[in-house]
Amino acid sequence: MKEQHTSRQSFLGADSDSQISSAKIGIVGLGGGGSHVAQQLAHVGFSDYVLFDPDIVKRHNLNRLVGGTIADAGARRKKIAVANRTILGLRPDARVEAQPRRWQEKPRRLRECDIVFGCTDGFNERRELEAFTRRHLIPYIDIGLDVHQVDDEPPRMAGQVILSMPGHPCMWCMGFLTERAVQREAAAYGKAGIRPQVVWANGVLASTAVGIAVDLLTDWTKSLRSRCYLCYDANTGHVYPHKRLEFLSDCQCPHYSPDEVGSPLLKRI
After folding, report:
1. Which range, of 62-66, 225-229, 237-241, averages the lowest pLDDT?
2. Which DSSP category does 245 fall into?
3. Nearest CA to 52 among 63, 67, 38, 41?
4. End-to-end distance of the chain based on CA atoms, in angstroms?
5. Nearest-angstrom CA–CA distance, 126 and 52
6. CB-side neighbour CA atoms (13 Å) of 16
7. Would you say residue 99 has pLDDT above 90?
8. Has this prediction a pTM greater than 0.85?
9. What whole-number distance in Å separates Cα of residue 102 and Cα of residue 117?
10. 176: helix, coil or strand?
11. Across the strands, what pairs with 128?
12. How does DSSP classify residue 221?
């Protein structure tokens, strides 16, 4: 089974199989983006997962939920159950901890991960995830997609993939998180309506994010070191580094102090 899955990934390095299979991966959100991420990680050979999502499968999810079926919607099956089925269908020996709840209810499980993927819609959720992963020195990969329309112009579909590495620029430094953004929750899919046809765009973002995770573990490109903020213009099919990266300095991230790591301590007063 292992040879069948990974024999053509030898370019990743001699130890890549063990590096990938031994890494514990957290995924928060198993909808359109997270379901793609889970599937692709399983194809690559990842075998240890912690999944968080309290939502159930609904019919209007099926045009973007990888692995979801009409039967799943009829049974009101949890999205993490679909992801679990997808992973085990590709990696029968995988260890999957599927939590049908918000990650904040069992953060200790996420703390044990080597890499965490955030596939959520809200800016506040992203803020909390990044703060958590920074405290526990865990690389965090965020993906997101939205559709906007101005007046009579064609709808614009755009997304991002951001790597937040402890000790390096965070999503505040990169300008993705702002005070204005966290004070309001962004609509899940902007002007796309209740049945957005975005499965192909989610696939691009998820593929890019999974590629970053593989590079973090294997260093096969010898180029990914810290900052990474990629923009995706679905209308033109382009993925490119955000302009803000040109103006970031190499100084210590001012938003997360290197002293503020580990579990918070409660003092008796």
Report:
1. 225-229
2. G
3. 38
4. 57
5. 14
6. 21
7. yes
8. yes
9. 14
10. coil
11. none
12. S
The 24-28 sheet, strands edge to edge: 95-99, 48-52, 24-28, 115-118, 140-148, 156-164, 228-233, 238-241
C-alpha 158, offset from chain centre: 16
For range 104-113, the mean pLDDT = 94
Count helices and strands in the chain by DSSP H and E runs:
9, 8
Is 61:34 a contact under the CB 8 Å cutoff? no
Q: What is the mean pLDDT of residues 98-109?
A: 95
Distances (CA, A) of 91 to 5, 21, 47, 85, 128: 9, 10, 7, 10, 31
Tens digits of per-residue pLDDT, 10-28?
888 888 899 999 999 999 9
What are the distances in angstroms from CA 10 to CA 14, 15, 128, 154?
7, 9, 37, 43
Structural domains of the chain ordered from first start: 2-243 (3.40.50.720)
Positive or negative torsion for Cα 44, 46, 201, 137: negative
User: Which residue has 């800016």 as its token pair?
Assistant: 123
Per-residue pLDDT tens over the stretch 66-89 = 999 999 999 999 999 999 999 999
Residue 66, Cα to own-chain centre: how many angstroms?
15
With beta carbons less than 8 A apart as the criterion, state whether 81 and 98 touch.
Answer: yes
Q: Which amino acid is at 229?
A: Y
Nearest CA to 116 out of 143, 87, 139 is that of 139
Q: For residue 40, give every residue at least 6 positions away whose Cβ sits within 8 Å of its Cβ, in sequence order, or none.
A: 206, 207, 210
| 221's tokens | 């490109």
